[in-house]
Design a protein that fits this description.
Number of strands: 9
Order of helices and strands: HEEEHEEHEEEEH
Largest sheet: 3 strands, antiparallel
Mean pLDDT: 86
Helix content: 40-55%
Radius of gyration: 26 Å
Distance between the termini: 32 Å
Shape: elongated
Strand order of the largest sheet: 1-2-9
Low-confidence stretches: none
Length: 174
């Protein structure tokens, strides 16, 4: 086999392995998210069969933020309440800096309302809602030596029961 053929085989093999690992990772991650959410658990330790901690899995909850959901209603409100922050071109829009500041103010208050600084009157802002800006997720943070411990456990066969039986010795395709 020449160098190019060797590289082609190595790339094809690594691509196949990476795809297999990624497919399984997506499935396990979804199962883990469901378990965390349904169990109401914020974090869980990942430990090897011998009890050594190798990582911490932590649920991340989305933080609500003010989001413009009806641009026309938002523009009409800004036009009526702060017309100097409306810019007219071929398209009329709220000045981006003002929109950012106003949305940040509503996010901080946790409501799609603003208070007039002079009168104190609180007014709902049409076209804006407080919504989660990202989906619920979780993170995996290996311990200081977690990666090395996992690699050692993989090589020794201690993790053979967990992952990728379709590519491990004696495994059956799933």
């Amino acid at each position: 086999m020449n160098d190019m053929q060797q590289l082609a085989l190595e790339e094809a093999a690594l691509k196949t392995l990476a795809d297999t690992v990624m497919d399984r990772l997506k499935a396990v991650k979804a199962e883990m998210q469901t378990a965390l959410t349904e169990g109401g658990v914020g974090k869980v330790d990942a430990t090897l069969p011998d009890g050594r901690k190798v990582a911490v899995i932590s649920r991340t909850d989305p933080k609500p933020a003010a989001v413009v959901v009806d641009g026309d209603a938002f523009l009409a409100w800004v036009r009526a309440n702060s017309p100097h922050n409306v810019v007219s071109r071929l398209v009329t829009e709220v000045r981006p800096a003002y929109a950012t500041a106003l949305l940040a103010e509503m996010t901080a208050a946790g409501t799609a309302e603003v208070s007039d600084r002079e009168t104190g009157v609180v007014e709902a802002v049409p076209g804006v809602e407080i919504r989660a800006t990202r989906s619920v997720s979780h993170s995996v943070r290996p311990t200081k030596d977690g990666r090395d411990l996992i690699a050692e456990a993989w090589r020794s066969g201690a993790l053979a029961h967990l992952a990728l039986p379709q590519i491990t010795a004696g495994g059956e395709p799933s």
